[in-house]
Structure formats: C-alpha cells, structure tokens
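Issue 218. Parser rejects a valid record. Input:
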Amino acid sequence: MQNNSQWLAQVHSDGVNLGIKELLHYQSKTSLLNLTPRKAVQAKLSGGYIAKTKGRGMEFDEARHYQPGDDIRAIDWRVTARTGKTHTKLYREEKERPVFVLTDMSSNMQFGTQLLFKSIQAAHLSALIAWSARKRGDRIGGLVFNQYQHLECKPFTRQKAVLSLLNSMIKMQRTAKDTGDTQVTLSDALARLRRLAHPGSLIFIISDFSQLNELAKQHISQLSKHNEVIAYPLSDPFEHQLPNVKVSQRVTLSDGTNRQQINLGEKRTEQAYTNQHQAHFEKIEQTLTQCKAKVLPIDAGSPLEVQLDRFSGRKKK
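Output the parser choked on:
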C-alpha cells in the first residue's frame, strides 16, 4: 500500500499548494462517481440529461465531414473554407440538467495534518465531479469562494468549462491567505448559487460547514426544493481525535493569526476533545439532512479513491 508521500508524488501534489496537474489527474477517475439523477428533474421545459443522440438542438457538439442527406443549412462554412472539405455542424440535443459545484476555499479550509489541506481535498473532489459531468455530457458550472472574493463559472458542456472551474480554484487557493477583512461567507456564496442554479440542477456543496448558520440553512433548504443537493462535509482527522503520544506534552496550535495551547497524552482531555468534536460534526450532518441534502462526509487524511470506494461498498450491501 502506498504511503502518503508516494501518493502525493503520483498525483503531483504537495498537499498545500494547488496546481493544474493534480486536478487533471481526476480526468481518469470518473468511474468513482455516478451522476445519474436520483429524482425527477423539476425544470418545466427540460428533461433529466443531455441526450446521446445528435441533431438540431441548442448545444453545438462538433463538426464532421459532410455526408449525403445532411441538411445544407448545417454546413460549417468556416471549417469548410479552412480545410477545403465540406463539413457539417452537429448539435447535441440538450435536455437541461446542469451540474453546479460550490467549493469553499476560505481560511478555515486551509488546514491539514496528515495528507492534504481541506481546501486541496475540496478542489480534488470538485475536479472529479467536473470531469465526471463532462464525460456524461452534463453542463458544468461552479462557484468558488474564499473569505475575500468569489468566482462564478457559468455552466457549459465543453471542456473549457471544466478548465475554467479548475483555474478558478487554483486562483482562489493562492489568494486564500491574503490579509484583509472577512467579507464573503458561506451564506453569501449560497445566495449567489441560488441565483445561478436553475430548477432541476444537480448541486454539490463542498465545505467544512463551519459557517452553517440559520441563513445558510435557509439557502440550502430552498435549493433542495427544486434541485438534487449533495453536501460533502470536509474535515481533517485531527478535528475528530487528538494524536496518540507516549509522553504527555503541551503543544501550541495556530491558524496563522490565533494561538491555542492543548495538552496531549491526557486521557480526560482526549475524551473531552473527541466528544466535543463528534457532537459538532453530528450536528452538521443532522442539519444538512434536515435541509433535504444528501450528506457524504469526506476527510482530508486519505485519498478520495479510498473514501469513494467505501461509499460504493456501502451502497452494494
């Protein structure tokens, strides 16, 4: 079995900084996700997917050599002029079913103790979702935010939509540690997502949900009324249990601004810490479930492949 350093090298990641190579890695991992709709699409003028057949629809798919019987109105004159051979435009019959990914890369996500920062794991999962949607032919859009700004990616079917989302996450990770006043919150991002997402969308929310207040809950509940919402609460193993040490010691924790000291190696402290944080994460899951979201917890301490295989195994039982 690979250790952490071997896995990080394989996916071209250092666990802290975000690069395009590690996000391209998930283009070959789309079998890990099943994006088939689990409930009827709510949009009045749309179906549940983009059809595999090609015809005179709204979404341009590709240009190919002209064949006898093709509609001359569909001739692609630019490609014909460039190649010297007659080409016809093909269209994908679009049955609206956009996929939206909301990715939290704010300062509270810039934390990790074993494998990846939570923000990096969030980016990996977002990339996997985007590539899976691209493979299915679904329209992919997203909204990436940290405490300073947000970036919106409108839904398209072409690969450039995926690359736009990937580059937005890279940019957001690089600016996540800038100094400045906190302005953008989870509630703000969810409010913007409500304006972007049309009824019948598949929505993924990837965050540690540390800002899951009443307003955020209202936004998620409203999104769930007309869309399929899947929430991935992200955490780090350290947030569930303190490390085991042989000798009691006092350590200092810091988020870059605030400092806190904690005792390691004391059973009473360890149990109180575990109980407190277990209650915290259970409350998040219960709240998201009450908002009618499907909840799939993910941690930053192991590769996505391992965790998503576990989810698949649960379904098969």
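Fixed in the parser; the record now loads. The two ends are 25 Å apart (CA to CA).
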